[in-house]
Amino acid sequence: MDLRTKYLGLELKSPLVPSAAAPLSRDLDRVRALEDAGASAIVMFSLFEEQITNEEAELDYYLTRSTHSYGEAITYFPDLEEYNLGPFEYLEHLANVKDAVDVPVIGSLNGVSMGGWTEYAVSMEQAGADALEVNLYFIPADPRITSAEVEANYIEVLQDIRSRVKIPIAMKLNPYFSSLFDMANRMEAAGANGLVLFNRFYQPDIDLENLEVKPSLTLSSPYESRLPLRWTAILHGRIGMNIAITTGIHDGESAIKALMVGADVTMMCSELLRKGTARLGEVEQEMRQWMEEHEYDSVEMMKGSMSQRSCSEPAAFERANYMKTIQSYDRYPTV
Amino acid sequence: MSRPMITIDGNEAAAYSAYRLNEVIAIYPITPSSPMGELSDAWSSTDQPNLWGTVPQVVEMQSEGGASGAVHGALQAGALTTTFTSSQGLLLMIPNMFKIAGELTSAVIHVAARSVAAHALSIFGDHSDVMAARSTGFGMLASNNNQEIMDFALISQAATLEARIPFMHFFDGFRSSHEVTKVCPLTDDEMRSILDEDLIRAHRERALTPDRPVIRGTAQNPDVFFQAREAINPFYAACPDIVQNKMDEFAKNVGREYKLFQYHGAPDAERVILIMGSGAETVEDTVNHLNQNGEKVGVLKIRLYRPFSVKHFVEALPPTVKTLGVLDRTKEPGGTGEPVYQDIVTALTEASNDGLIERNRVPRVVGGRYGLSSKEFTPAMVKAVFDNLAAEKPKNHFTVGINDDVTHTSLEYDESFSIEPDDVVRAMFYGLGSDGTVGANKNSVKIIGEDTDNYAQGYFVYDSKKAGAVTISHLRFGPNPVRSPYLISSANFIACHQFNFIDKFDLLKEAVPGATFLLNSAFGPDEVWDHLPRSLQQEMIDNKIQFYVIDGYHVAREAGMGNRINTVMQVCFFALAKVLPKDEAIAAIKAAIEKTYGKKGESVVMKNFEAVDSALANLFEVKVPDQVSSAREKPPVVPNSAPDFVKLMTGPILAGQGDRLPVSAMPVDGTFPTGTTQWEKRMIAQEIPVWDPQWCIQCAKCAMVCPHAAIRIKAYDPSALEGAPEEFLSWDWKGKEFPGMKMTIQTAPEDCTGCGLCVEICPAKNKKETRLKAINMTPLPEVLEEEKTNYDFFLEIPEMDRREVKPETIKGSQIFQPLFEYSGACAGCGETPYIKLMTQLFGDRSIVANATGCSSIYGGNLPTTPYSQDKNGRGPAWSNSLFEDNAEFGLGFRLSIDQQKVQANHLLERLRSEVGDTLADEILKADQSDEVGIHDQRERVAALKEKLSHLDRPEAKHLLTIADYLVKKSVWIVGGDGWAYDIGYGGLDHVLASGRNVNILVLDTEVYSNTGGQSSKSTPRAAVAKFAAGGKATGKKDLGMMAMAYGNVYVAQIAMGASDTQTVKSFIEAEHHDGPSLIIAYSHCIAHGIDMSRGMTSQKNAVMCGHWPLYRYDPSRAEQGDNPLVLDSRDPKISMAEYAYGETRYKMLVKSHPKEAEKLMEQAQADATSRWQRYKNLAAITTNGHGENEN
Predict the structure, then answer these.
(1) Mean pLDDT for chain B?
(2) Which residues in chain B (85-124) have CB-CB distances under 8 A to chain A?
(3) How does residue A326 score in pLDDT terms, banded at 50, 70 and 90?
(4) Rounded Cα gap, residues A286 and A3, in angstroms
(5) pLDDT tens digits, residue range B242-273?
C-alpha cells in the first residue's frame, strides 16, 4: 500500500504529520518517537514574533530599571557578556531536530505584523528547515483597520518572506476571510506553496469565580474537521498549492476524509496530546485497514476524490447544511 | 592620537590593573569600592586571564574581616593576592593588616577612601578610613585621578614585591571612584616592564609549604617581641627609594612621570599647599590660574604617605616657601592636628634638627580640614586657603568649605571665584534615575572621550531616596585634560529632563549668561513659557538664556521606549552643545546604542534608533519674552505648619541648600527628631490608588501591603465626619468588631509612589466593570487636590483606642496607626510592609537596632526619616550602629532596658510606703501581655510619676527618670540577609543563644540589595547575582533551621504575599515570646528583576513551589507537650522553575548559559523539594504529651 504524498515539494512517506501546535517538537526524544511512530515530517512548534520582541524588551527593562539612580547600587545585576535572545534557542533546537530525524523538518513562524521578525525565516532556512509554515494570527480589533488592509497585510508579509527564502512556504490561515478563495489565489500569486487549514485561535474564556478573562486552550474535537474539509473540498484542484488540514484529525477515518476532499497531508495535535505519540502509528494502521477494506492502493488514488469538483453533490459544500436537512425531510414525507 | 584611550571611572581603573596583577582576589561589597570586586568577578567568570595567563580566583567572603583573613592566608600560601574596600570595611581589615605588614608580605589592597561613621554614617569620600589604618605598617600610596589610579595600582604592586612592605593604594571615594574620565590604558608589556619576576618568585619562596616547612605567626614573650618588631626597620627605611625607583622605571617605560612628593607651581613660591587625593588636582588647577595672574604659589602633592620620607619631602619643597598649608581630608577630634599636618610639623622639625633644611628656612605650617564626606572642594576654597597663608597670622586648624559659626574655624571664600576655562563645555543634567539620564550621559562621555581628541569628565550626583530618585549629572568636555574634581558651578548647558523639577530646584543657579537651557516639556514652544514660575522666567531673561523644549516622553513613547527619554535627550544635547558635527554625533550615538544594547536584542536597538531619528524634529527653540508674565512663584519646600527644626534644618536640605547650613544648625551628637518624612511631599507617583467603597470588602490588604504607609484605613464614630470635605468617602464598617461605626480607606496622594501593590492585592472586583477593583489607579493630576484635602481630613480623624482592636487580624493590625511612613524605599518595596506592620503592632513601645543596608538607608538617611510618633509622642526609637554588629547592638538595648527595669523595680520597692502598696503591687505584678495591660500599666506609671514628683527623696528623683521602663518595651533587631546570614551571623547566633528577649526581623531579599545585588549566603541556587554571575552554585543557607536547633528560640518564616494572617500571627507570637525570636521575612526586591506591583504574587509563588515554606516554631508549644513546629504552607503546587522563571535573576541565566541554568534549576528544585520534605517531616512528628516523639 502506497501512503506516499507530496507536500510543499517534499516527498513524504505518508500524509500523517504532527502539527505545529503540538508542543511535542520541543523535546528531541519525543521528536524521535514521532518519527518512529510514523510521522512523515516534523512541523516545529512556532517561533512567535511577540515572544522575540517581548523577551528582548523585558530583559532590557529589568536589567536597566533603577540603574544609575542610587549611589550605592549603580546597577543590580552583573553585566553578563551575552544573551541568547531572539530565535537563538529555537534555531539551535531546529538544527538539532534536523540532525535527529530523517524526515523533513518544517519550521514554523508566527507573527502579526510586518517587521524585522520575518528575517528569522532566513535563519530557519539556514538552520536546515526544509520548508516554512507561516502563521499570521492577526485579530483586527482596531475599528480603523479595513478588511482590505488586513488582507493586504497578509500578502505583504508573505511577499517579504518569499523574497528572503528559497524553501517552500505554507500559509496557515484562519477561516474568517470574506473570500478565502480569493485570498488563496492571491497567496499563490505572492509565492505561497501551500495552505494549512485552519489555525484555531485560543478563544478566551470567562473565569466566573475571579471575574477574569482567561485565554484557554481546549483540544479539538473530530467535529471541527468539517470546516477545513469544506474549504479543502472547494479549493482542491482549483489552486496550484498544496493543502494541509490541521483541525480535527483524530483517527484513520478523519485522515481519509481529509485526503478525499483534497488535502495532501493531515496534521494532528490534540489526539497526540491526549493519547501520546504512539497514537500516530495507530492512526496510520487505521488508515491502512480502511484502505485495504475499501480497496484503495494509494493515497494518491483517494486524494481529492470527494472534492467539490469530484463529488456527486458539489452544492453541498457551498450551501449550509440546513438545506440538506430540509431536503431530507422532503425525502421522507410523513403525511 | 597615538594610543587608544578609554573612558572609565576610578574603580575600573584600579580593577584594571589589580585584576591583571593578582591570582587571588577576596572581596566583600561596600560602597564605594564594590564595583572593583564586581568587575573582577565579572572578568573572572568570563575567564579573562591575568598577566600570567591564568584566571584569577575571585571569592566573596562574609565580611571584610573575612576577606582580609583570606587575603592573609592566600598571601602566606604564596599567591599574589588583593582585595578592595572602603570605610568600615577597611577598619575590619586592620587586625589582619597588622599581621600582613608585620610578616613583611608583599601585597596591595585598593581602597576607595570613604568617611568612617561617627555621629552618622556617610557613604561619601574622605580619608578617615585610610588614616585609621595608618598605624598598621602598610605603605600608603595616594592617587589623585583615574590615570594615576591605574598607574599606581601597578607601581605599588611592583614596589611591594621589592620592598616587602604591603601597600594600601587609595583614592577618593566617589569623586575618583565614580568619576568617569579619559585614561590611557596600560598594556600588558608596560605592566611587565616594571615587574621583576625574580621578586615574584621570591614572594612564592617565602610561602608556607610542607615542602619547606617553617612556622609563622608565633606568640612571643616580653623578652623578644620588641626587638623583633624593630627588626623590620630597614625595610621601611628602604621603601621610599624603592617606590621612587619604580616610578622612575615606569616613567622610562610608559612616559608618565611621578614623584613621591610632587611639586607643581612657581619655583619661587612663598605659599604652598600640601595635599593628597583628588583635591590636589583642584589645587594644581588653581595654582596655575593664580600664577598666571601674578601670584607665586604652588602645590606639593603627597603620593607616598607611608613610609613617610622626610628626605624626599624636604627635597621637593621649594626653598622659598614661607607658609605651608597642610590640608587633611579627615578629622581627629582632640588631637593636636590632623595626621598629615602632624607629620609635616614633625618632618620639618626633624629636618631642621638633622640639617636637611636650614632652621631659618623652615616654613610656618598651617593645618586645615576640607572635603569631609565628599564636601565640595573648589578653586574658590583653594584661593581662600592661599589667602589665609598670606595673612600675617594665618588661621591654624582651619576648616574650609563650611560655615563654622560655633568654634569659628572656617575660612570665608568667594563663591563666585571660578577658573573654568572658556574652551570647556560644562553641562548639567537634572533627571530621574528611572529616565536613564545618567546612563546616557556616561555614553556621551564615552563618545566624546573615545571618538574624539577631546577630553571628557562625567560625575554624577545621586539621590539617597530609592523611589523617584533624582540624579544630577556634571559633564565637562574640552581640548585639554580636565582637572576639575568638583561640581560645575558655571554651566553653559543645562538640561532639565523632568518638567516638575522647575518647582523643586533652582535650575539656572549655575547658568552662565547666554547658557543653553533644554527643558523636557509636554508644553510646546508656544505655551511652555506660561507654565514656568516667575523666578525661573526672571533668571532666563536676566541671563539671556537660550531656551529649548522637547516633549521627550512623547518621542520616547512613540519609539516604544516608554519612560526612557535618555536617548532622545542625549541627541538634543549633542545638537545644542555642538561638541561634534550633527551627523557625526548621531552616528556616534547610534554606535554607542549598538554597543550598549546590542546584546539585549535587535528590537531594543531599533527602538533606540527610532528615538534618535525622531528627536531633532521635535526639538524647538523658545523665544524668551522680555517680561516676566507668570502669576506663580515656586511653592515652599516645606509647609509653614512644619516644626521649626524642619523649617530651619530639613527645609534647606530639601531645597539643595544643605551646604549653606552652619555648624550651629547641627545637632552636636547626631540626634534628630523622628517623623520628618511627613513634611517632604515628593509627589512622585504618576497614578495613585483611589478607593471605591461600594465594592470594598474591607479586608485591609491594601493598607497591609503598602510599602510607604500611603494607603491607610481608619474606623471611627460617625460623628467624626462632621466637617468632612464634600468628596470625602466613608462607608459603614462591615465587620462585627465595630458596630455602627464608619470606615475610610484613604490614600496619601503626595506620599504614594504609585507602585500598584495595593491594587494588585485587592480581591474585590467592581461587579459592573470587572476591569476595576475596590481601589483603582488613577492619574495623580486628576485627583491630587481633592485627595490632598481628603487625606488632611483623614489624618485628623481620631485613631481607634488600641484596647478596642484585635491585633491578630489583618483588619485589626491595619487599624493601628503606622509609625513608619513615606520612606525613601523603592516603589513596591517588599521589606517595608513588614517594618510598618511591626510599628503598627508594637511601635509605641519599640526600640529598633537596624543593621546597615537598605533598611538603614530608607530608615535613617537624611534629609527626612520615616519612623514617626503617635499623638502621645510615642513611637519607635531607632539607631544604626554598624553592619556587622547589629544583633549585639540590639542585645545591648535589651540588657540596658532590663537593667533599668530592675533598678526601677528596686526603687519602687524602696518607695513602697510613699507610693502606696496597692499601686506598687499593681505595677510590679502587672500583666502587660496585651494592649489593655500596656495601657493600664501606662496609667499606673503616670500615677506613680505624679506621686514621685512630689517626693523629695533621691530615690524618687532617680525612679522618676526611669519609671517608664516599668512599661514593657519591645526590642527589635532589624536587618537584611547580608547582615543576618553573612557579616552579622556570628553575633546573631550569639544573641539567639543568649536567651534574652529580643525580636529579630530578617528582611530577606536573598541578595545584598543596598549595595547593588551581590550574592549572600541567602541567595538561592541558580539565581544570578553579582559575585555569582554564573548563577549561584550552592544552596541557600537555612537560617531558620539553625536557629531552631537552640530549642528556646521562637522562629517564624513568613511571606506576606502568601499568608498575611500567618505574618501577623508570627509577629505577635514572636513579640510575646519571652526569649529570642527570629522572623525571616521573604522580601521581594527590585534586585529580583520582577514587576514590583506583583511582588506579593512572587512571594506567593515562592511559597507555592516549596522554596519558602511558611512555618512557626514556638518553644511554648513544646512546653505544653506539643510539637513546637507548625507548618503553615501546603504541599508544593508548582515547580521551582515556574516560580523562578518569573524573575529576571533566574531567567537571565537561561538566556546567557542555558545548559548551566538547566542543571542548576534541577538542583534548585531538589533543594526546594528536600527542604519542604524536611520541614514536613519535622512538623509531622507527634509527641506523647511529655515532649517525647512518638513517631
Answers:
(1) 96
(2) 123
(3) very low
(4) 12
(5) 999 999 999 999 999 999 999 999 999 999 99
Q: Is B6-208+222-253's fold the same as B430-479+493-560+584-622's?
A: no
Residue appearing with cell numbers 525571616: B1080
* Helices and strands (H and E) in chain A: how many: 13, 12
- How far is residue A259's CA from residue A17's CA, in Å, rounded to a whole number? 13
Q: Which three cell numbers stand for residue B139?
A: 605603605
Does A18 have pLDDT greater than 90? yes
Q: Are B567 and B615 a contacting pair, CB within 8 Å?
A: yes
What residues of A are in contact with residue B32 (Cβ under 8 Å)?
71-72
How far apart CA B765 and CA B85 sit, in angstroms, is: 52
Could you give the CA distance from residue B133 to residue B114 in angstroms, rounded to a whole number?
12
Query: What are the residue numbers of the active site of B?
Result: 31, 64, 114, 1010
CATH architecture of structural domain B259-411: 3-Layer(aba) Sandwich (3.40)
Per-residue pLDDT tens over the stretch A173-188: 988 898 999 999 999 9
Which of B603, B607, B854, B857 has the highest number of chain A CBs within 10 A, making it the mutation to test binding with A? B603
Tell me how far apart the alpha carbons of residues A268 and A252 are, in angstroms, rounded to a whole number. 11
Domain residue ranges in chain B: 6-208+222-253, 259-411, 430-479+493-560+584-622, 676-816, 890-966, 1006-1180
Decide if A216 contacts A204 (C-beta within 8 A).
yes
Residue numbers of A between 53 and 72 with CB closer than 8 Å to B: 53, 55-72
Considering only the top CATH level, what class is B1006-1180? Answer: alpha beta
Q: Which amino acid, residue B566?
A: N
- Give chain B's end-to-end CA distance (angstroms, integer): 80
Whole-angstrom Cα distance, residue B279 to residue B538?
36
pLDDT at residue A320 greater than cutoff 70:
no
Superfamily of domain B6-208+222-253: Thiamin diphosphate (ThDP)-binding fold, Pyr/PP domains (3.40.50.970)
Residue B1151's H or E segment, with its range, is: helix B1144-1152
* Burial call B937-968: b when 16+ CB within 10 Å, e when fewer: bbebbeebbebbeeeeeebbebbbebbbbbbb
The pLDDT score that the predictor gives to residue A330 is 43
d(CA B819, CA B799): 12
Distance from C-alpha of A104 to C-alpha of B1063, rounded to nearest angstrom: 57
- Alpha helices by DSSP H, B293-408: 310-316, 339-353, 379-390
Picking from A58, A79, A83, the nearest residue to B42 by CB comes out as A79
Q: What pLDDT was estimated at residue B1191?
A: 44
Residue for grid cell 516622553: B553
Residue among B35, B602, B1089 minimizing CB distance to A77:
B1089
Per CATH, is B430-479+493-560+584-622 categorized as 3.40.50.300? no
pLDDT above 90 covers a percentage of chain B that reads: 93
pLDDT tens digit sequence for B114-149: 999 999 999 999 999 999 999 999 999 999 999 999
**What stretches in chain B show pLDDT beneath 70?**
1-2, 1183-1191
> For A204-229, what is the mean pLDDT?
85
The reported pLDDT for the residue numbered B129 is 98
> What's the ipTM?
0.92
CATH code that applies to domain B676-816: 3.30.70.20
Question: What counts of helices (H) and strands (E) characterise chain B?
Answer: 42, 37
CATH numbers and ranges of domains, chain A = 5-331 (3.20.20.70)
Q: Say whether A319 sits in a helix, a strand or coil.
A: coil
d(CA B165, CA B545): 57
* Chain A neighbors of B433, CB-CB under 8 A: 66-70
Question: B258 with B251: CB under 8 angstroms?
Answer: yes
Cis peptide before B1132 (omega within 30 of 0): no
